[in-house]
Design brief:
1005 residues, alpha/beta, seven-stranded parallel β-sheet, 38 helices, 25 strands, 55% helix
Amino acid sequence: MFKFLRKLFGSAQDRIVRRYAKTTEQIVKLEEAFSTLSDDELRHKTTLFKERISQGESLESILPEAYAVIKNTCRRLIGTDVHISGYNQKWDMIPYDVQLIGAIALNSGAIAEMQTGEGKTLTAVLPLYLNALTGKPVHLVTTNDYLVSRDCAWVGSILRWHGLTTAALTNGTPLEKRKELYQADVVYGTASEFGFDYLRDNSMATNKEEQVQRGYYFAIIDEVDSILVDEARTPLIISGPSPVSRQMYEELKTPANDLVRMQRDLCGKLASEAKKTLEKADALPPKEAEPLKKEALYKLWLVSKGLPRNKVLMHAKEEPEMRQALDTLDLYYYNDQNKEERANALSSLFITVNEKGHEYELTDKGLDAWASYFGAGHQDDFVMLDLSEEYLKIDGNSALRDEEKVEKKLAVQEEDLKRKERVHNLQKLLHAHLLMEKDVDYIVQDGKIVIIDENTGRPQPGRRFADGLHQAIEAKESVPIQRETQTYATITLQNFFRMYDKLAGMTGTASTEAGEFKQIYKLDVVEIPSHKPCQRKDLNDEIYITEREKYNALLKRVKEEHAKGRPILLGTESVEISEKLSRIFKMSGLPHTVLNAKQHDKEAEVIAYAGKRGAITISTNMAGRGTDIKLESGVAEIGGLFVVGTTRHQSRRIDRQLRGRCARQGDPGSSLFYVSFEDSLIRLFASPKLNALIQRFRPPEGEAISAPILNRSIETAQKRVEQRNYMIRKHTLEYDDVMNKQRQEIYSFRNDILWSNEVEQLSGDLLESVVASGVKRFLTGRSKEWDIHGYQQWLSETFPITFPKETLERLNAEEIERETNTLVKAAFLEKIKAETAKIAPEILERVNPVLEAVRNIMIRKTDKIWQEHLLSMDHLRTDVSLRSVGQRDPLTEFKHEAFHLFMELSDHLRQGIAHDLFRFEIVQRPPPLLTELLGRMQMEKERSLLTEMEGERSIKEPLMDQTIQPPPPVLSIVEKKSRRNDLCPCGSGKKYKKCCEEEKKESIR
């Protein structure tokens, strides 16, 4: 019934496309009418559109005319030269009807799913033009700097023809030029650059002139699935050197290496023994061989838990019977009834590795090995100190003086911090050795560790793994270890892009993540039909038992297709595999080109060559995403581009992207994936039932298996990984949502300070809030319950005022707050007046440096306390993860604790600013040039005197050949250091706090 209704009325997608198609017909008719206009008349349409929008007309009503104008502009530019990346290219594009449909979807705030080669780059120009007419910020977000520069130069020429300005924001754009760049009508840039500029504007800019962005109105995200899904698991972080660093990577890297080596040696020995035992068992009758096989199986199972990639183990798993037996033994040990037996078995290892969960754990044997490596005193390296118990012991020791007790407590604190840092550093070093692979997760380039994006295969220079992992990898690879960093500002891409008033996206692969786009970003996915029917042939996967068989079959097929002259693109999942495949092809005499993170600078050149007759290109996932592989003349007749996948990736979208490299715009092409049971996806995530199936239907050596059930099993494994990754992204977002509310509060307060023209009034309001919190803290309830002494002490520590006790006793809380506010504001105005008097009148005519100093103090204090808060939140997130052991939800705990931390931050911030507003002064310092001249004059004077004393005659060059008027003195802010515990300079012998300072406060009062 439902199928019949869908066939009759169409799906929701069909109805949307039909609705947009009606608007497209209107655009086509208008474009034909505009063909009679002159160039100047067509350009003038832009001015008319802007006027209509300013008068209140909606973008939707202007859309058909605006899109028709852009289509007609493209028609007029046919055959003209466009300068792109150092060469000229002839303009040859006019939007098809399906591109107009995609452009309408983008303007409506949806994701347009368009197949590879359908012209997404040109499609985006139409909504960019329409929305730029408003004069509000319009951004095109793409995946890498090359596409930023190319798209801005190429399709940006359409916008510039109409007098709109465009700009390209790349990693190499200087900070001082970014403000001017953001003034452009349309800005092309990468997600990270937009995000980092937002963080810099709101956490590092010390005045409004340093802020570069001008708002967040409309953004189109190219390859939206890559940016909002794949990259969304990693938040953007601006960090700097930590003021206190206890990292021990240099000290611990050798013992960590040795511990890992001991584990490898142990597993290697177990694997070798298992191999010999199996060989011996093969020569015996079945009954006698059975116990030997069980012994070998047990040892191989231990190896799988200690070193999952061991070569002997991998070779043993080539036999379906052995694979099935290992799975059965694994299920046995994970049964609740056999947990103790499992623990006893694993205790023989130093470390257990969970490759699927990407985690590991030190066993008791590993801890003992660590302690024995360092010797006595290191048995408790992994035992957390109970500080309260240690403090009680110190306090209970009557033999210690008070000063000695304080020193002992500080020593215990320091020991606790060292233990925690030692454990943390060792954990990261072991993580680097056991779970992070060179040429898979990172590469070593120019003495630095460069991260490889796991989804695109592109290098990520400038990015670092968080929480000390990057330093651990640096130690592992023996490159210079960078200093420990501290977070200054952070935001997730999800929360950054949700700030835009209108968001849209385009990609060739969004439907598999449509639910996530709708749930998190409120974005619908609209599937846009292709301009020409797709002629790609997607061949059934060829599945082999072993990796060796897979590569042999792949090599054979490549030779066959290469002999026909077809261009071939081979997609690999890592740099390591691409280089391994390259070596195989070299040995076979196959000419080829490699494109991976080590050759990323040649990406455009390699992709341009990939469609030529007989070309073989081996590439990671970066295979020119965002660029099309165009076929050389005559290639279509022999079948077009042949795409070969060397494995199934963990995401179905990446497989679809690879397939989409061929058969663009109706061209022929075909794709084929080669899979083996040793591939990580099958090995870690496929159903155990698959092994049982293979055991029954083991094909002959070198023969492929092809069955629908296997394809479904692979797809199920991919769905499991996708679900796991979705939960990681959701988890990251849930925690960042808590931070986001706090971030918005702090950034809003910070921007109020930067942009306020009434800094004095803003400071006064803040001082009032501090006084109110002080009164609430000390003078709550009945007057008998008041802490009058505490209030007096708090006042004297925060402001340069005081209240006599008798005055406080005769007033109520409201009167005390009112009187205190009057005195505080009077003292603050007096402070401003006194500092202003130090400044020359000609400077005051331009700006009041004192008020700017007040603004600067408030900004600096806000940044300092916010950074400390971020560190506390990092620690909190780590701590609450352990509360699940006590059957408490970590996220709920995080929300409660974060709320209390933020309330403390708010009080601490206001209090700190109020305190600092009375502890600064303006001093006049000679400018650097004058200082240098005075220094040289003093040196000349001393040298001249020395020459006279030695009786030598010398001719010296004159110091200055003309009179130089020194520039006016530089004004700088100097914070006064507290003198409360120093002896008073009046000679009374009392401390400053108890003597003249109190008299000074009394006089102010």
